[in-house]
Design a protein that fits this description.
Blueprint: H1 2-15, H2 26-53, E1 56-65, H3 66-77, E2 80-82, E3 93-102, H4 103-111, E4 115-121, E5 124-129, H5 137-142, E6 149-150, E7 158-159, E8 167-170, H6 172-179, H7 185-192, E9 215-219, E10 222-223, E11 242-249, E12 262-268, E13 277-286, E14 295-305, E15 309-319, E16 343-357, E17 360-373, E18 377-380, E19 405-408, E20 411-412, E21 417-432, E22 436-450, E23 466-468, E24 471-472, E25 478-497, E26 500-520, H8 522-527, E27 532-533, E28 535-559, E29 564-579, H9 585-592, E30 598-599, E31 605-621, E32 627-637, H10 641-644, E33 647-653, E34 656-663, E35 673-684, E36 689-701, E37 704-708, E38 713-717, E39 721-733, E40 738-754, E41 758-761, E42 771-779, E43 783-792, E44 795-796, E45 802-803, E46 807-816, E47 821-827, H11 837-846, E48 861-869
Parallel strand pairs: 2-5, 9-12, 20-27, 30-34
Antiparallel strand pairs: 1-3, 4-5, 6-7, 8-11, 9-10, 11-12, 13-14, 13-48, 14-15, 15-16, 16-17, 17-21, 18-19, 21-22, 22-25, 23-24, 25-26, 26-28, 28-29, 29-31, 31-32, 32-35, 33-34, 35-36, 36-39, 37-38, 39-40, 40-41, 40-42, 42-43, 43-46, 44-45, 46-47, 47-48
Helix pairs in contact: 1-2, 6-7
């Protein structure tokens, strides 16, 4: 029809003129007539081809390779479909559900933006594909098939519409819009993921939970969690190297420990095109009110490949300066968990994808990451540390916080640092062992985490350095140093049996942990107000331990009808814990400072335990766009062995500390805290128009983890803990240009069952209040703008401790230039003065002076960045 219209236009142009006003040209008319005959013949040929593409196809395929899907579709339509396997990702897992769709429509939906043309000759359809230009990759990805494939819900790729649970996907476009406009990663995730708490503006994500519970954070399917809960999983990769983030809210019986609140899987960028491609990003962030307030960043990547091998190497660098609050006062440097002031981050991340055979793939990832304090500025604690020294360490004299200051001249043998090496390899092969898909994954991670010089917790309040009443030794500054090594592997098999899908396998991991405490020379530290710190000696902070885990799992789903599916699974996990002999930390300190000469060791040993987890679910598709589901899932978390063991009571007999009793691995074996969760949900996903997802949940644990603020150890209590609430998001987006508005909320109630009064609001130490997010934006071809607001509510617990909520507003925008994209943003537009949740908790943890631990939120901050892909 298109060609017939074109012919008509030509005829009108040359033959529809007034013959008096136009010269008659016999040769021209003859040529035109000849052209018309050719065009008519061509149009008839096109019409014949179109009739093939208009054939109706009825076919249902679930979780099959694209190559198999194309073959099956061709058989159904009675045609041969050909393509170039080097230009088409034929190993991609797809699902096809066609009810009387035309062949053309079906192939367009299946191939998306990669389709260039469908050529038809006789009874053969040839698929011609095109490479997506790198500069528009993010925009095109937003318009692809709505039924996105994720792996977060199981060990194999699965379409979101088939997942009976709450799933959120933060794609590259959403994430980079936040990051390039100045919103840090933890805060961006708290804005974009409804059930995730707003993050602290420091290095640690302590207390940042999903549905009020622990998060299992993974990098390309490998856990970033450790038994020693240092809470630095988001201080592990620069956002420049992140492709997307998959989130499964709620307990999971698939992955094992720490997944009681949900799973966050960080998927890294990979090479997409075979040709050479580069990406550059530069940016700066500042409050523009102080010369010492500026953060600078630079990132560069290069990717290339051929039909067999593709690879990408990304490098990101950021150097921060100071940070200022809403009153233009420099935020106190966090001396406990540490923050990102004066921090330098280097992230070098590379990966290689290899196709050794038609149905095989090999993937290798490797990373070097270092996030480290990098400045000669430091926190001055006053002469002889009088600005922060606790009264019980200073002859009863209270600290004077007016002496606290940030000054030049800082030099320390230990500074805050997160340093990681990460290697991950995956091998996949399809159609083996009777049509099964096999995946093997092996990984290794080593990390060195150092903390700030600070008053060592565990001895500040108990003051066991006392030689005799009235005779107190100087309280030194110290820094915790914690090293973790982890390696493991995973094997997964999956098979589709008509309407039943089965996934099963096993995983193994081994983790070792060493925790030390570096003590600094007291005379040097005191004389410089804490600016100069030289290691005098190193003691054991936590008992060294090793944990070995071996698990087997199986998960099955059955598509009862096209609309209804049920699923269930089991995981059996065996954990073995080995702990070394250990002298209690306080006794080590006492002996080191001359209070006694020896101490008994708390005996180590080895113990093991098993945990079995179940899950079951049902999902019903109301139509092509909407699904409702109900599920039950069990998750479990393991108490930190470093903070559980190495605890005992001592009595001094002469110069020897005698052990009276202890908590040790032999007499007190660890056991997982099991959580049962029930969930009801509904979703209507859409890239344009109305989009919504909502779920109500109820989770109940059989034990509670309690923290001792004097010794900073933890213990298990038989008290039950429950969380229940609602998480939801609704949005409306016009496309390709127009408004984008939406809102999300997480309403949560966290309770603990007390012996005397029954259910009461659980402690604010580990629980955050409800939150709400709203945004409105406009997107055009060349620019976009968005305003977003976050409100967190107040929360008071059963001990009358309270967290004060806050509200912040951000403005984000981008402008497409002839080359590249310019992004800008203003965070905390109204310069709100507020205290972060970590700052409020730190005062409870560490006491006076509160000014030393109150970590304020950052004031109005501007960001300008430029990115280009070429």
């Amino acid at each position: 029809m298109k060609h017939l219209i074109t012919v008509g236009n030509i005829f009108k142009k040359y033959c529809g003129q007034d013959p008096i006003q136009k010269k008659k040209n016999t040769k021209a008319i003859s040529a035109l007539a000849y052209t018309l005959i050719l065009m008519l013949f061509f149009s008839l040929n096109v019409a014949a081809q179109t009739s093939i593409l208009d054939r109706a196809v009825n076919i249902q395929l679930k979780n099959v390779r694209l190559s198999d899907a194309l073959s099956a579709i061709g058989d159904k339509a009675g045609v041969n479909i050909t393509y170039s396997s080097t230009k088409l990702n034929v190993d991609k897992i797809v699902t096809v559900n066609s009810a009387n769709k035309s062949l053309k429509t079906l192939l367009n939906e299946l191939l998306g933006k990669s389709l260039k043309r469908l050529d038809v000759k006789d009874n053969v359809i040839t698929i011609e594909t095109k490479e997506v230009p790198s500069a528009t990759t993010e925009n095109i990805r937003q318009m692809e098939d709505l039924d996105e494939v994720v792996v977060v819900s199981s060990r194999t790729p699965k379409h979101i519409s088939d997942i009976p649970g709450t799933v959120w996907v933060v794609d590259s476009a959403k994430l980079q819009a936040q990051i390039r406009s100045g919103v840090p990663l933890k805060e961006a995730l708290g804005i974009l993921i409804p059930s995730l708490d707003i993050g602290n503006q420091g290095r640690s994500n302590y207390g940042q939970n999903l549905r009020g519970r622990n998060i299992l954070v993974m990098l390309d399917g490998v856990s970033l969690n450790s038994s020693r809960a240092t809470n630095r999983q988001f201080d592990a990769i620069d956002p420049f190297n992140i492709e997307k983030i998959e989130v499964l809210s709620g307990a999971s019986a698939i992955y094992g420990g720490d997944a009681t609140g949900g799973i966050i899987n960080i998927v890294t960028k990979k090479a997409k095109a075979q040709k050479l491609s580069l990406e550059t990003e530069v940016g700066g962030r500042s409050g523009l009110r102080n010369s010492g307030d500026h953060d600078l960043r630079f990132a560069q990547s290069i990717s290339a490949g051929n039909e067999v091998v593709k690879g990408r190497l990304g490098f990101a660098y950021q150097q921060n300066a100071g940070a200022f609050d809403g009153k233009n006062r420099q935020i106190v440097i966090d001396t406990k968990q540490s923050d990102f002031q004066y921090n330098r981050t280097i992230d070098l991340f590379g990966n290689v994808d290899i196709k050794p055979g038609k149905n095989q793939t090999l993937n290798f990832d490797a990373q070097y990451y270092e996030s480290k304090y990098n400045s000669d500025k430091g926190l001055f604690l006053g002469q002889n540390l009088a600005g922060g020294l606790p009264a019980n360490a200073n002859n009863g004299q209270a600290p004077d916080p007016s002496l606290l200051d940030i000054r030049d001249g800082f030099s320390s043998d230990v500074v805050p640092r997160s340093k990681r090496f990460f290697v991950n390899g995956q091998y996949r092969i399809t159609d083996i062992l009777g049509g099964q898909n096999f995946q093997f994954q092996g990984y290794w991670r080593t990390e060195k985490l150092d903390f700030s010089p600070s008053f060592p917790e565990g001895i500040v309040r108990t003051r066991e350095l006392t030689v005799s009443p009235g005779n107190v030794l100087p309280l030194p500054l110290a820094a915790s140093r914690q090293n973790t090594n982890l390696w493991g592997f995973r094997m997964v098999l999956s098979k589709q049996f008509d309407q039943v899908n089965l996934t099963y396998g096993a995983d193994f991991d081994r983790e070792s942990f060493i925790g030390k405490q570096a003590f600094f020379d007291a005379p040097t530290t005191y004389s410089t107000g804490g600016l100069t710190n030289r290691i005098a000696n190193t003691l054991g902070r936590f008992p060294d331990n090793r944990i070995v885990g071996f698990s087997g799992f199986a998960q099955a789903s059955w598509a009862v009808t096209d609309q209804l599916a049920i699923a269930g699974g089991i995981r059996r996990q065996h954990m073995s814990v080995s702990v070394d002999d250990f002298v209690r930390f306080q006794q080590q300190v006492s002996v080191n400072y001359g209070v006694g000469t020896s101490a008994d060791a708390i005996p180590g040993g080895k113990n093991s335990y098993n945990v079995t987890l179940f899950n079951g679910s049902v999902i019903y598709k109301l139509n092509d766009q909407q699904q409702v589901w109900a599920n039950f899932a069990q998750g479990f978390s393991v108490p930190d062995p470093a903070k559980t063991y190495g605890i005992g009571s001592y009595q001094r007999e002469g110069d020897h500390w005698k052990l009276l009793n202890s908590i040790n691995v032999k007499d007190s074996p660890l056991s997982g805290v099991k959580t049962n969760q029930f969930e009801l949900g509904w979703r209507r996903p859409a890239k344009t128009g109305f989009n919504a997802q909502a779920a109500v949940y109820y989770s109940l644990s059989d034990k509670a983890l309690l923290t001792n603020f004097s010794t900073f150890t933890i213990s298990l209590s038989d008290q039950h803990v429950r969380n229940y609430g609602l998480e939801a998001e609704v949005s409306y987006r016009q496309a390709p240009e127009g408004f984008d508005v939406g809102a999300s909320a997480h309403v949560i109630v966290a309770e603990i069952k007390t012996p005397a009064d029954g259910w009461k609001r659980n402690s604010i130490i580990t629980n955050n209040p409800s939150k709400a997010v709203a945004y409105a934006g406009w997107k055009a071809d060349d620019f976009s703008v968005r305003v977003q607001g976050v409100h967190t509510f107040n929360l008071k617990d059963y001990q009358a401790l309270e967290l004060k909520g806050f509200t912040t507003i951000d403005l984000l925008g981008s402008l497409k230039l002839p080359l590249g994209v310019l992004s800008a943003g203003v965070q905390n537009v109204f310069n709100k003065q507020y205290l972060t949740f970590w700052g409020q908790r730190a005062v409870i943890f560490y006491g006076a002076p509160s000014e030393l631990y109150q970590y304020n939120g950052r004031g109005r901050t501007y960001m300008l960045s430029y990115s280009i892909t070429y």
